[in-house]
Write a structure and sequence with these properties.
By secondary structure, the protein is an alpha/beta fold. The protein has 2 domains: 68 residues, 2,3-Dihydroxybiphenyl 1,2-Dioxygenase, domain 1, CATH 3.10.180.10; 59 residues, Signal recognition particle alu RNA binding heterodimer, srp9/1, CATH 3.30.720. Helices cover 22% and strands 29% of the residues. It contains 3 helices and 8 strands. A 4-stranded mixed β-sheet has the order 1-4-3-2, covered by helices on one side. A hairpin with a 2-residue loop joins strand 3 and strand 4. The longest helix is centred in the N-terminal third of the chain and has 16 residues. The chain is elongated. The termini are far apart.
Amino acid sequence: MSKNVPVSRRKFVVSALSAAALGATPPPAFSAPVSRAADREPQLKLTPYLLFDGTCADAMRFYQSVFGGELNVSKVKDSVMKNQMPPFQQDKVLNARLQSAGVEFSASDWLRPDEARVRGNTVCLYLRGGTRPQLKTLFEKLSDGAQVTDPLKAQPFGTYGALNDKFGVRWMFWTNEKGA
């Protein structure tokens, strides 16, 4: 029978961070890779996905102007789903994908007329690392029409800022570089 032992919040956080660090550690050099058919399959990638209420194409073009890269946009009317969707949704974006150096995410318009889309900060995009000048440039570009909730500035832990862009998407920025 197991016994419940109280754990302090500090011990819990330290334990969780240790487990995360261990999980992120590459395997030891002495473990040789096993060649299997599964190793040749594309690897899974976690990609943020955004849902818009009819503004997906505009939002993704805006993000492309900030980050550059390749943008692919598929509308309902140009897809194999066109016959399964009502006429009022034919011009909505079924899927959009933006890929550039270090940045990749996908999006679509809300396509479930029988369910209400919940607007809010349920998705947050976190830009971390890089140099302070890079982060500052992206922050300034995304600030166009945005609600800046935390101006980009030096903090004890680096440089941090946050904003809700003109499409209602929450962005956080962090680099360990401090500066003026």
